[in-house]
Structure formats: structure tokens, C-alpha cells
Design a protein that fits this description.
This protein is α/β, with parallel strands linked by helices and about 160 residues long. The protein has five helices and five strands, in the order E-E-E-H-E-H-E-H-H-H.
Length: about 160
């Protein structure tokens, strides 16, 4: 199990989820979670720049040891996946100096819920349960917290 702080990121051009989790032995502590939402009418470079700025602020503020990101899922909408891949590149740029880890969506669901086919509601509920949160986080933040937990539980030092 990885110890220390992990920043999990669920990349998206309209909404990039983030979750910072710290592992203390077998306890998980949520440090921060939320969603970066660049202005919808901004240009692509400005939106990517906004995501970069906000992620760098999180990294500078919380100093994670590991940055974990959900890989792009290319199933039905290739143009959307291409835009998300650009956000993924921004996340990887922000991760310079950190241990960068990437996980497929089904892998994350399997780690957290026990099945790679878990629905979004189950993922959100598991995050609230595992992290002892008073409220169920929004879907992008919940996904990011799940990515962080995946990085903690994957057995790498």
C-alpha cells in the first residue's frame, strides 16, 4: 500500500475532478476534493490553461507524493476522447516531479467496488463509505477520489 498523499484526477474539458487522499496505515483521510470547471465559452487553450493553473495550485498547496489519473476511455465518442486526451496531457505535465500513475476506468472500479462494471452511483457511494464522508461527493470528485484510492491500494511503494 502506498503511504503519503495522493492526488487523483478525473480529466475532462468541461469538468476535471480532483481528490487528495492521505494514507495513514490502513486509514484514509480526505484532504480535499472538488471539480475544476473552466469557463465553457473560453477558447481551448484558455480552458486547458485554467485546468493547468488550478491543478498546479493544488500540487503546490498539498504537495502530493503521487499523482494518479484516469486514462481516457475511447468507446463511442472519438472527438470527445480527443479533447479529454488533451486534458490528460495537461495533468501529466502538472505531475512533473511526482510519481505519475495511470489507471483504466474498469481497473479503478474493480479496485474500489470489486467489479469493473460498477455503476456511477455505486462508485460515489463507495467513496462516501470508504472515506467516511458526510456527503456523497459529486461524480467527478468521486471518480478522482477513487483514482487516488486505487493508487494507494495498488501495492507500489
Amino acid at each position: 500500500m502506498t503511504s503519503g498523499r495522493v492526488l487523483g484526477v478525473d480529466p475532462g474539458l468541461t469538468a476535471t475532478g480532483y481528490g487528495i487522499v492521505e494514507a495513514n496505515g490502513d486509514q484514509f483521510v480526505t484532504i480535499a476534493a472538488g471539480t475544476v470547471r473552466p469557463p465553457a465559452k473560453a477558447s481551448l487553450p484558455d480552458r486547458l490553461g485554467d485546468i493547468h493553473t488550478q491543478l498546479m495550485e493544488l500540487i503546490e498547496t498539498f504537495d502530493p507524493r503521487v499523482v494518479a489519473v484516469e486514462e481516457v476511455y475511447l468507446a463511442r465518442n472519438a472527438p470527445s476522447a480527443m479533447l479529454t486526451a488533451q486534458v490528460l496531457g495537461v495533468v501529466k505535465l502538472c505531475a512533473r516531479g511526482c510519481d505519475l500513475r495511470s489507471y483504466a476506468p474498469r481497473e479503478i472500479k474493480k479496485w474500489v467496488c470489486g467489479t469493473g462494471a460498477a455503476p456511477k452511483e455505486q462508485m460515489m457511494g463507495m467513496m462516501a463509505h470508504l472515506l467516511k464522508l458526510r456527503e456523497v461527493p459529486g461524480d467527478h470528485a468521486a471518480d478522482a477520489l477513487a483514482v487516488a484510492l486505487c493508487a494507494i491500494m495498488d501495492g507500489r511503494p
